[in-house]
Amino acid sequence: MIRCVRTVAVAAVAVAIPGISIGTSAAAPDSSGYGEWDVEGQAGSLSTPLTGFPAAGFETTSSSARTGSGGAAFLGDSTPFGAAHGSSQGKEYLLLRTARGGAPSDTTITFDSPTPVGWGFALGDVDADTVTVSATGADGAPVAAADLGWQESFNYCENSPAPSTCTGSGPFTDVPRWDPESATLIGNGADTSGAAGWFRPTVPISSVTLTFAVQSGIPVYQLWTAALPVEIAGTVGTDCGDPAPDTTVRLLDADGEPVLDAEGAPVTTTTSDGAYAFPGLVAGTYQVAADPADGTEAGPSATQPVEATEDTSGVALTLTCATPEPEPTTEPTSPPAPEPEPSPTSEPTSPTTDEAPPISVSTEANTPVTITLPDELSATHADDPANGSVTVNSDGTLTYTPDQDFLGQDTVRYTAKDPSGATVTGTVTVTTGLAATGTNVLPIALTGGALLVVGTGALLLARRTRQDPHHPDAE
User: Is 0.85 topped by the overall pTM?
Assistant: First the structure.
C-alpha cells in the first residue's frame, strides 16, 4: 500500500521451523519468540528472547527506520506466520522506506553467529514496490536463491479480526509474486493492503540483505522476526533403580559444546525429584547431559541427543551406580601358609642352573690372563677371587689379574649363559708362577744352609748336609 509520511505501515519477517505444521490448529502457538528491535538512527539491534538463537545488529540506508508497537498492523493467527508462531499483535516490528530521494535502500541484518537451520522471514505490504533478498551462509559465501527458502504469498488483511491498517471492505486478494531468477519479491504496482510473502532458509544464515525499491508513490514496508519456542523435558534416573536427586543437567549443542544464555553462561538446570526441563529454546538439534551425583558415574546413557523441532518430552538420562569399595576384613578367611624352611646351604643356587666342568689356566706373576669358558659359554658375572681381581668382558670371556707379586693358585667362581640362554655356573683355577728368564741353573755345592738368588726372581733353597753322623745337625 502507498503511504504518506504520516502513515504507519507494516512489513514482516518471521521465523519458521522445519517439521512444524503451519496450518490452523485449535491451540494457538506460543508467540514469545518474536524479535525485539532497538533502533538508533540508521542502525540498531535485534534480539530474540529464545535460548540458542543468535542476537543480531542491523544497518540501513532507509531514509528513516523506526519500530511499530504491533497494535494496528499485525500477523493474525490465521495467517501462515500466526499459525506457526502465534499472533504478532502487540509485538514490535521494523518499518523501512527507500533511501533519500526515492533511491533503493539496503537493510542488512548481521547475526552474531549463524542461525539455526529453519528460521524464516516474511515481507509485508509489498504492493507498489519490490524487495530483493540476498544472504550469506555460515562460511560467508552468498546463499543460492533456492536456499533462501521461498514459501508462498498471502494477504494478512484476510485475518479476522483484520488489522486496522487494512482499509476498505475487501476482498483482500492482492499478493506479490516471487521471481527466483532475480530473487525479488515483486508487488503488483498498485496501492493495496496486506500483500505479503514469506521465506524459510534451508541453510544457516550469517546475514540477510533486503533491497527496497519503489514502483510508484511513496511506499514503505514492514519487518517482523520470530522463532518458534520449544521445550526439552525428561527424567534422570540410575541403572540400579535408586533415584538421582540434586542432579545438574546441562544443555549442549549438536557438537557437544555448552549452549550459552544471553549473559554468556552455560545453560543448566537442577532437579531434586528426577525431572528436568529446558523451556524457551529455539528449535534445533541439541544434547542433554546429566552430571554424576554422589554414588553415581556418568555412563553411556547420561547424555542423549535431541532433535527438537517441537516440544520434546520423555528424554531419559541414566546415571551408572558406582560400585562401592569393599570394606577391609579384620580376620583372614584362612590361616596363612607357613614360611618355608631355609635351605641348609648359605647360598642356594637355582635348581635349574647347571654346573660347567672346571677349567684351569696359568699365568706369570703380575700378568693378566684372558679366560675363554668351555662349551661356548658366555660369562655374565664373576665373583672376585681371594688373590686377584676378575673382569667380565663384552665377548663373554673373563680377564683374571693376580695381586702384585702373588705366586700360587687362585679360584674364580663365575655365572654364564649357554647358547640356548640357560644359566650355567662354573669354576676356573688360575695358577700364577715365576716368569722364565732363560738363565741356566748349575749344580752348586753348598756347605751349611744357604739362600742363593740366581737370575731375576728365582729362588733356590739348599739343605745343609754334614758328613759327621755324630753332629747334632747331621741329616
Answer: no
